[in-house]
Amino acid sequence: MPTGEDYKIKKKNKSIRKKLRSESSKVSNRIAAIIAQKKRRQSGKRRMCQGMCFSLPTPEDPFLDKPTNLDSKKKDKTKKTKKVEPSKGVDNLSEKGNKRKAKEDDQSNGKNQEQKRARVEKESDKKSTKKLSSTRISKDEGCPSKFLISCLKTIQDMMHHNEAFEPGKPLFFDSWGFDFWRCYSSGKHVLETNGSCTVEQVAWIASTAVDTITNKEKEGVSFTTPYLLFLVPSQQKAIQVRSVCKPLKAFGIHTVSLHPGASIDHQIHGLKTCEPEFLVCTPDRLVELVSREAIDISGVGSLIIDGLGSSTEGAYLESIKSIQKHISVDPHTVIVTRGIPYQQEIAMENEPGVCVYD
Fold it and tell me: What is the pTM of this model?
C-alpha cells in the first residue's frame, strides 16, 4: 500500500467528495421514490405492476409479455384532425346571430364600464381623503431630523467636561428642546421665563439653526449674512455660548463672539476675513459695529435675546430695539427673561404666536 503524501491527499479528497455527495443526496424516502419513478417513466421502463395498472390483458397478450409500441402512440398523437367546414347558409345565420349578440354585449359593457368608473372615482376620493388625513397627522406628529440629532450628539461629545452640562442625560431627551423645535417648525416665537439660557437650550437652538441652514442650502439658497444672532448681557455669557456652538464647526458653521473684552479694530479685521453663520455678541458692541458698517445683520433668520429681566437697565433694552431696526426680515425670536413685563415691547407686530415656558 502506498503511504506517501500524494496518497494521503487523494484519500482526503476522496472522503471530502463522498461527504459532499452524501450531503447533497439527503432527501426523504418518499422524494427519492418519486424521483426514481420519474426517471423510469422518462426512459420508458416500468415495473410489472405499473404496466398492469396502465394496460389490460388481451387474447393476443394475456400475460402482458409483449412490449408496447411507443412509436404508434406517438404517431396517433401527432395526427391532425380535419376540420369540418360548415355550409354557407349556416354561416349567414351564425353571422347575423353573432352581430346581435355583439350589439347586446357592447351595450352591457358600456353600462358596466360606467358603473366601474363611478366606483373607481368614489374609491379615489376616499383614498385622497385618507392621504390628506395621514399627512396632517404626520405633520402634527413630526420629529427632528437625523442631522439635527447628529448635531446634538457632536455638541454632547465635546461638552462632556463642562461643569454646567449633565453628562448622564443625553441632549436628545431634553423636553424643552422638543417643545422649542415644535414652536420653531410651526413658526411661533418662544418666551422663556427662567432667566438665562442653559447649555441644553443653547445646544438645541444652535442645532435647529444648523439643520435649517443645511436644508435651505440644498434648495439653492445662499447666506451672505449671519443666520443666528445671539444677544447676551455679558462677556462671560458670550464665551459660554460660543463654547457650546464651537463643535458645530465640523458641519461648516463658524461662530464669532463680539464683546467689549477685545479691541473693536481687531474684531473689525476678523469680520472682514470671516463670514460667520452664528453671531454671539453683546448689544452695545454690536450696535457700534453696525454703525461702522463692519457687519450686516439685515438677513438674520433667528434672533435670541438672553438675560432680559426686570433688573435689566434701560440702555440694554434700547440697544436691542435699535438692533431690531437693522433686521429687514421677520426672524424667529426667542426671548429668555425672568418675567413678562417686556414681552409687548419686544415682540413684533405680525408674529403668528408666542409659546410661553415657565
Answer: 0.57
